[in-house]
Amino acid sequence: MTTTTQSGFINTNAARIVAAVLALLIAIVWFYNYQADFSRLISGDAVNQLPEASSQAAVAANPALAACLKKRVGDVDQMKKDDLLSGDKYASFRARAEQLCTQQNPAQQ
């Protein structure tokens, strides 16, 4: 039995150059997309600054959102008070609680 291999464009140097150029372009786009994160990482800023999940005006205008935030964020605050959550986990849990309430109770228009 003999096997034949068909050499096409895939096994050429031109294909390797095209792949390298595509990889370089993807790396450049990726770098510019996450440039702020890279600069924060390089500067040594270890604090993860989470965006504000809800504004005070939105909470005041939506009583269901205010009630949800009071319950969920209150539960997270209680876990922090009971030493069940550390600083990083507390910030993450609180942000997720705020995000959940915001998704469940969208802004009224």
List the helices and strands and how they pair.
Elements: H1 13-33, H2 35-43, H3 56-61, H4 63-81, H5 87-104
Helix pairs in contact: 4-5
Q: Which structural class matches the secondary elements?
A: mainly alpha
Mean pLDDT, as a whole number? Answer: 80
Let me know the number of strands. Answer: 0
Unreliable residue runs: none
Portion in strands:
under 5%
Helices and strands, in N-to-C order?
HHHHH
* Gyration radius from CA atoms, angstroms: 25 Å
Estimated helix fraction: 55-70%
Number of domains: 2
- Major beta-sheet overview: none
| Gap between N and C termini | 74 Å
Please tally the helical runs, counting DSSP H or I stretches of 4 or more residues.
5
Shape: elongated
What features would you describe in this structure?
This protein has 109 residues and is an all-alpha fold. It has two domains: 9-43; 56-104. Helix content is 67%, strand content 0%. The chain is built from five helices and no strands. It has helices spanning 13-33, 35-43, 56-61, 63-81, 87-104. Helix 4 (63-81) runs antiparallel to helix 5. The radius of gyration is 25 Å and the shape is elongated. The N and C termini lie far apart (74 Å).
Descriptors:
109 residues; mainly alpha; elongated; 2 domains
Brief rundown of the structure:
The chain is an all-alpha fold.
